[in-house]
Design brief:
With 384 residues, this protein is mostly beta strands. The chain is 10% helix and 46% strand. The protein is globular, with a radius of gyration of 24 Å.
């Protein structure tokens, strides 16, 4: 019995020592920032000693590991985290209150070894406003026309739809969305004032995390695969673009040209944005790009997803390149004021450009494959 008690004491002592060895970040203010170094994503965070364990979940990792920086008003720390890993630390507030905090990286998803392999094909439609949509069923009850919006995540329904159409009971964490022959779960539902023309809401890319999604405008289909079809890698007409994740959406690299000036940056891949490309004018000016020399076509006030007003100037852009393909004489939307998203500025690729390519999204290896389709020569809406 004495030996048993001794082992218990040693065991408890090990736990206490392990807890004592947790990294400590000092703070006098409960306000702090968390920075994902690889993508520049910054989050405001409040240290709270009343929460048993406060968890910050990173964006999806497109590399094996990433560095996270914590900065308080008087201290800072860096952590390297791998896929599926957790890093715990203590924020010591005013020298007395311990705030247990965890940085969590979600385990990677990969359905490439699913047995049997799946290839689910759904009818894909696109209207004159560049909104692509499919028919879906929510909770086996509500038939909904939804936009596949790669610039969003989870499921978003318009307030009108939530109020007047949904008959099923919506419960957090237990909803199911049927798209084609597959049922998707583990998503959140958010309200919004607006959605793409003719749709009742939108679903994001992350429903397909770990899968392959195909958009073929020539055939009018959307397909979900467990494996990338072998012919895609063999087809030299596809251009291959790396994916970078930021705040649960994803970006690809693109270059724009005006005269002798070329600017290369990461662009939000946003099939839910109905125009060509939205450029952050002030950011481009800071980088020396001749925004003011672009010929103005028109000025409009646009509505954001939440009904907010955004002043936009449409100007002539000489060219935009995606991989090995270049589009010319594009009526681009140029913001006169930067639009901050999670404290970051960004450019956006919209579906007036993206619809001109048949696409494979490889959410297993974080790659986009695209090649021109029958819509490539179609006039832009502003030129029609």
């Amino acid at each position: 019995m004495k030996n048993f008690n001794l082992l218990i004491c040693i065991f408890l002592g090990c736990i206490i020592n392990a807890q004592k060895k947790l990294p400590v970040v000092k703070a006098n203010s409960n306000q702090m920032t968390i920075l994902e170094v690889d993508n520049g994503f910054t989050t405001d965070w409040n240290a709270d000693p009343n929460i048993k364990l406060d968890v910050y979940t990173t964006s999806k990792l497109d590399t094996e590991k990433k560095t996270i920086k914590i900065k308080t008003d008087i201290d800072s720390a860096s952590f390297t985290i791998k896929k599926g890993e957790n890093k715990d630390f203590i924020v010591l507030l005013k020298g007395k209150d311990s705030c247990a905090t965890r940085i969590a990286s979600l385990p990677p998803k990969n359905f490439s070894k699913a047995r049997p392999p799946f290839h689910d094909t759904i009818k894909l439609s696109i209207n004159e406003q560049n909104t692509m949509f499919v028919k879906t069923i929510l909770n086996k009850t509500d038939t909904l026309t939804l936009n596949f919006d790669t610039g969003s995540s989870d499921l978003t329904l318009t307030r009108e739809t939530l109020k007047n159409k949904i008959k099923s009971s919506l419960k957090s964490g237990s909803n199911a969305l049927e798209i084609g022959n597959k049922i998707y779960k583990e998503f959140s539902i958010y309200p919004a004032d607006l959605s793409g023309h003719g749709t009742e809401g939108r679903f994001g890319w992350d429903l397909f995390d770990g899968m392959i999604v195909e958009l073929d405008y020539d055939k009018g289909i959307m397909a979900v695969h467990s494996q990338l079809p072998k012919e895609v890698k063999k087809d030299k007409s596809y251009s291959k673009l790396a994916i970078k994740y930021f705040n649960n959406v994803f970006f690809v690299e693109s270059s724009i040209r005006q005269g002798k000036s070329i600017n290369t940056d990461w662009y939000l891949f946003d099939t839910g944005y109905q125009r060509t490309v939205m450029l952050d004018g002030p950011m481009l000016k800071e980088q020396g790009f001749p925004v003011d020399s672009m010929k103005e076509i028109k000025r409009v006030i646009m509505k954001g997803a939440q009904g907010n007003e955004v002043p936009v100037i449409t100007s002539g852009l000489e060219s935009l390149s995606l991989g090995k393909y270049t589009l010319k004489n594009i009526p681009a939307q140029v913001l006169s004021q930067s639009r901050l998203v999670s404290r970051s500025r960004m450019h956006i690729l919209g579906n007036e450009i993206l619809k001109r390519f048949n696409v494979f999204f490889d959410f297993q290896n974080n790659v986009v494959y695209l090649k021109p389709n029958k819509l490539m020569a179609e006039k832009y809406i502003e030129q029609s």
